[in-house]
């Protein structure tokens, strides 16, 4: 079938993207779903910093690639062997498909799936297939999904079935921002009730982490960012303290306010400076967690002695250490009870052909989430 998709053909074009137009909306041929795959009509797709990292070249991928991974939609057709989904089911996409067979999958850590990592790096679906073409040219898949498109064919392992009663625009966020941010708090850090938390970086993931910390009973939640609008948003969502990270004394101020630092600090910006702040404001015996994805050439360093003498713990968190089949339904249930109000993150809706302008807005940081709901 013919689909309209957002294709990236060149990385690193200059901002603003409204002028350089790195993404073109193209009519592509989408093959039908093969064994173990599904065809999904995409209903809502959110612009994420991981897309932006491919566009600006800080997370290089093979091109041309059809972007988009934080999305939701309706199953239209299932391939052979798919017995647990049927046309009409609502699904959210997950950006690391997990095979269920490799050692990390068997250990209950599907975010680290070996096959999923290979297929995501190569720009294919799980198992190596590519279903997008333009004449004789192959168009690669972004993170096994390619959701900035009216339809997508993906592995069954790239979607989780969800409740039909929740709007697609809200469901979409659960596949990336929410599982990454909330998961970092409840799975990777597994924070204790009453503990103190700092969140450095208040994009969709940071604000989701903030909501996760509130839901988990954190007693003090320090929100840190360079952007005043985001600090206001954090306060509105329930941060107890906010700090401008442009202030050269930000570390001292947070330590002073918390009597020596926080139990858990989360870095969600993917920026070395933010990681340094997160580590520095983690108290003796505390834990620093990062969900950030900086350029592979960027290095974070710290005095090694502090790990020992202060018994600090440093943890990475990918996909929020989530088991998507287990966690997404749980998080959606908390959302339904208004205990995880991720709808408050959504700020702007756009059409597919406004995507370059949308990424300019995302890069500026004025909106927590920008969602395409017209394809
Ligand atoms: Zn994402
Ligand atoms: Zn696996």
UniProtKB/TrEMBL annotation:
Pfam families: ADH_N (PF08240), ADH_zinc_N (PF00107). It comes from the Bacteria. The keyword Metal-binding applies. Residues 23-372 form the Enoyl reductase (ER) domain. Keywords: Membrane, Metal-binding, NAD, Oxidoreductase, Transmembrane, Transmembrane helix, Zinc. Signal peptide: none annotated. Its cofactor is Zn(2+). The chain crosses the membrane at residues 171-191, 197-223. InterPro entries: ADH-like_C (IPR013149), ADH-like_N (IPR013154), ADH_Zn_CS (IPR002328), ER (IPR020843), GroES-like_sf (IPR011032), NAD(P)-bd_dom_sf (IPR036291). Belongs to the zinc-containing alcohol dehydrogenase family. This is Zinc-dependent alcohol dehydrogenase family protein. It comes from Pallidibacillus thermolactis.
């Amino acid at each position: 079938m013919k689909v309209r998709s957002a294709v990236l053909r060149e990385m690193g074009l200059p901002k603003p993207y409204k002028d350089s137009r790195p993404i073109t909306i193209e009519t592509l041929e989408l093959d039908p779903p093969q064994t173990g795959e599904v065809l999904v009509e995409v209903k809502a797709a959110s612009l994420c910093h991981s897309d932006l990292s491919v566009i600006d070249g800080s997370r290089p991928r093979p091109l041309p690639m059809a972007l988009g991974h934080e999305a939701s939609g309706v199953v239209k057709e299932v391939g052979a062997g798919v017995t647990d989904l049927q046309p009409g089911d609502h699904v959210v996409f997950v950006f690391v498909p997990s095979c269920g067979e490799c050692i990390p999958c068997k250990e209950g850590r599907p975010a680290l799936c070996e096959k999923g990592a290979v297929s995501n790096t190569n720009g294919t679906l799980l198992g190596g297939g590519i279903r997008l073409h333009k004449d004789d040219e192959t168009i690669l898949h972004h993170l096994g999904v390619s959701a900035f498109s009216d339809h997508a064919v993906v592995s069954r392992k790239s979607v989780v079935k969800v409740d039909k009663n929740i709007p697609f625009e809200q469901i979409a966020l659960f596949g990336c921002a929410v599982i990454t941010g909330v998961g970092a708090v409840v799975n990777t850090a597994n924070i204790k009730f009453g503990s103190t938390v700092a969140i450095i970086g208040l994009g969709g993931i940071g604000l989701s982490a903030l909501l996760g910390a509130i839901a988990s009973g954190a007693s003090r939640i320090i929100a840190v960012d360079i952007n005043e609008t985001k600090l206001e948003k954090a306060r509105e969502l329930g941060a107890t303290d906010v700090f401008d990270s442009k202030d050269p004394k930000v570390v001292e101020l947070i330590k002073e306010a918390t009597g020596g630092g926080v139990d858990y600090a989360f870095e969600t910006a993917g920026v070395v400076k933010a990681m340094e702040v997160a580590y520095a404001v983690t108290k003796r015996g505390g834990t620093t967690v990062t969900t950030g994805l900086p350029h592979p050439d960027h290095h974070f360093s710290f005095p090694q002695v502090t790990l020992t003498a202060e018994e600090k713990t440093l943890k990475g968190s990918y996909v929020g250490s989530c088991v998507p089949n287990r966690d997404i339904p749980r998080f959606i249930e908390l959302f339904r009870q208004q205990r995880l109000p991720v709808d408050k993150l959504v700020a702007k809706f756009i059409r597919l052909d406004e995507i370059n302008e949308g990424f300019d807005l995302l890069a500026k940081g004025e909106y927590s989430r920008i969602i395409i709901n017209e394809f």
